[in-house]
Structure formats: structure tokens, C-alpha cells
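Human:
If only I could read C-alpha cells as easily as an amino acid sequence. I am handing you a single protein, as its sequence and its fold in C-alpha cell form. I hope you can help me see how the letters and the C-alpha cells relate. Thank you; the sequence and its C-alpha cells follow:
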Amino acid sequence: NIEYKLKLVNPTQYRFEHLATQMKWRLQEGRGEAVYQIGVEDNGLLVGLTEEDMKASLKTLRRMAEKVGADITVLREREVDHDSDEPHRIAEVLVRKVPDDQQFLDLRVAVLGNVDSGKSTLLGVLTQGELDNGRGRARLNLFRHLHEIQTGRTSSISIEILGFDSRGEVVNYSESRTAEEICEIASKMITFIDLAGHHKYLKTTIFGLTSYCPDFAMLVVSANTGIAGTTREHLGLAMALKVPIFIVVSKVDLCTKGTVERTVRQLERILKQPGCNKVPMLVSSTDDAVTAAQKFAQSPSITPIFTLSSVSGESLDLLKVFFNILPPLSNSKEQEELMQQLTEFQIDEIYTVPDVGTVVGGTLYSGICREGEQLVVGPTDAGQFRELAVCSIQRNRSGCRVLRAGQAATLALGDFDRSLLRKGMVMVSPEMNPTICWRFEAEIVLLFHAKTFHKGFQVTVHVGNVRQTATVEALQGKDELRTGEKAGVRFKFIKHPEYLKVATVVRVCSHRSAVPNARTRPPRL
């Protein structure tokens, strides 16, 4: 979402109004963000401006931003070759809308990596604003269970937030801010989904990737251990689910420069392999971070690599610059189309809150949900849907009256019986007339299995927020599958029916390892 402008020097009132309207449209297209390149012709030719013209152009741009309720931040300036003796420069400027009524831009980032690679510590440093002491102090606020604090290992899915205001400044829990204050100040929010690194919690990690619908994935690799444990498996998961991935090499303060370089070379070698076909991009300066953020969103093959330390703070600012500039994958038109569809909310978490009642957490996949709205929830074990009403809505621990497609939130359901709910259910508009299925067909690719995949095999199926054991009823045209082979397979859920949609990405796991990536066909009832 980039606009080229050669110069903006002393425009007439009519021209100024036209420019302001154009900026407003650009911000709507970019869901509250746009990038202006000053000193560049419409065809992309770098002409450059004198210092006087550049100052006047930036002043005009600031006036335009004020008129449409936005702020500007100069990302970078660069001199260009010019025939005259006077130096000519071009400038890249980020325009970001000032938030109103909690309508900030929200990007979800899943955090992957092997156990003890420093995932939770890095998130603690980013969201709390304080460096780690080298013994894991920064991660303590992220843990949800006592055994996690005792072992230092994440076993559940935790959510953390990092905000940026309209001027690009970091907004986090430092200065004793609450989550409500962060939401109030921030124009852009990065929601981190902290996932488990240990192999025995792999199913939890897969559930986080399929259910929480992350926009991006951040793979954390420890500089001193390199690619170990579940690192390759997590990289494969993100790629199979087509989640754009970037890499952070942590703990560089514990290693020599040669060790860090060896780990980076190891990563580059894997990313360039035929199975990955990625283009690694090492980020070592602010200019690199700006370029990486823009190219990463444009091309899924670009994979930025950061090297940093959560103890010394080395290169931590580069990661913040990257998050600040990183644009959303979907534009406003796609968002509008989703909002015009019927309401569909997928349930990921269920709570009982004193004085509030039953509360469910999840993501609104389509439509708009308002307080007091009447929905139906299901399917139950008998395949039925029950009526309920949404009493109140919260996003990032602060009240919200309207929930839009793509946003995650918690919904209070009052005195609705919690025992009738389970993870994997959906809350949909009654007009949708939802259908359920026991059986479904999928085109699968067997990524890895020690033996053969055949009829009667039992696997754990992940389809969005659905996670249930299913039996293989039939393979089309084959008796069995081996590693690397592809086939159409019919599955049957063994416990209760589920709500599935056609062409949804599926993950299937045996009890030993992650197996395939698939897309569902129309369910056979």
C-alpha cells in the first residue's frame, strides 16, 4: 500500500483537498496504514528533492495527515544521484491513523521454536519493556501454570500483546500500563501466540496454529544449540499451513560471533533446500528491517532472519521496527467481504467467571457480532444446535460493543450451561442453517510416518479449532500410503459430529508424529 509523490510544495486549496481525500482512501485500503515515498515519480523513478523542497513536502504531508486524523513517521531518507551540485534526497514516510473506538490494526504472530530456545523470554522482554536477567525473569509473567514456572517450559497457549501508537512508538506494559490503556493508546497491535516447544506438547502447538489463525509465524532458534529438537518440525508445520514465517536467532550474548554465523548459515542452507524454496534475508540495520517488512508481506518466499539477545538487548530495536512497519496480509476490501457474510465464531477456550457466568474465547471468522445478538451454538454430541445470547464482548481485556470478522475476543454468555460447550464448537447466525458431518474426504500428503498409512488407522485430526480422533475408512485407488505419497482419504470421527467447511486446511497427526497437510472436499453425510 505505497503512494509515490514527486513533491508536495505549496499546493492550492483544491489540490490539497484532493491529496487529503487520496490519503484517506489509501488509509482505508491499508486498514489504517499507508507508506508515502516522497521524491519519486509515478513510474517509480527516483528523482529526489532538495532539502528545502523536502521540508516543504513533509510539512504538507503532515497537514494532510492531521486533516484525516493520522500521524506521520519518517522511516528512512536516502540521497540519490542527480545532475546538479545540490544534494537530492528521497524519503519514505509511514502514515498511520490515530485509533478510535478500539479499531486498531491487529496482527497475530505465532511464536514457534524448540524447547529452551528463548521464546517466552523474548516475548516477556518485548511486552514488559525490561531486559531479562539471564535466568528467565522476563518470562515469568507469561506462564499460566505452576509447573511451567517450576520447569521454565511452556505447556499451554498464552496470549501477549505489543502495541505501537500512531507515531510508531512502542506501547507495552512498561510504565505500569494496563491492557486497557495499551488498547486505548495503540494504533497497531501485535498479538503474540506463545506456543509450546517440547515434543510432548506438539498437539497443543498444532492446535494453536490451526485454531488461532496467525497472520505470521516467528521461529525462534537458539544461537548456541542451532537447529535442534522440534525446530524442523515447527518450520514444516508453518510451511504446510502456508503461514509466512520469519526467524529470530536468540541468545547471541552467550556465543562467539563465529557460532552465531554458523547457526545463520545452517538456517540459510535449510531455507534454500528444494522443500522450502525460501530466500533468507539477514537483517543487520534499520534500513534492512524496513525493507524486510515490506518485502516479507509482498512475497511469501522472503524469510527475514534477526540475530538478537534478550539479556543485552542487542538488535532488539530492529525487531521492533520490523513489527511496527509490517503490513496486514488482507486489504480492506477482503475485510469488508468477510464482514458482509453471516456470523461465524469459533470457540477455542471456555471459562467460568464469577458474577459473569460462562465465557468463551475464540475468533470471529466472518460477519459482525454485537452485544445482545442471538446465535446458535453446536454441534452437540447428538448433532444439534442450541440457542444463546451474547451478553457482552471483550477484546484484549477491555470492553467492546462490536466484533468484526478476523478479530479475536471473549464473549460472555450469562447463565448458559458450560457443560453443553466444548472446544471446537461454533457459534453461528441462525440464518446460516449449519450442517454437520461424521465423515469427510480429504486430499492428503503423508509428510512422515515410520510405517504405512492404511484403512483402520486412527489419527488426531485438526481442522481449524476442531481437534478429534478419526478413523481412516478408505483410501482412493490405494491400499496403503508411505512417506511422501499423496491420496484421497475418507475419515470418520469416532466421538461426535463436527461442523466443517469445504476447502479447509487440515492437519492429521498419528500418536507419534505430525503427518499430512490436506484440503477437505464436500463432507459425505
In short: The chain has a mean pLDDT of 89. Residues 436-510 form a domain with the Elongation Factor Tu (Ef-tu); domain 3 fold (CATH 2.40.30.10). The chain has four domains: 2-97, 105-329, 333-428, 436-510. The chain is about 25% helix and 35% strand.
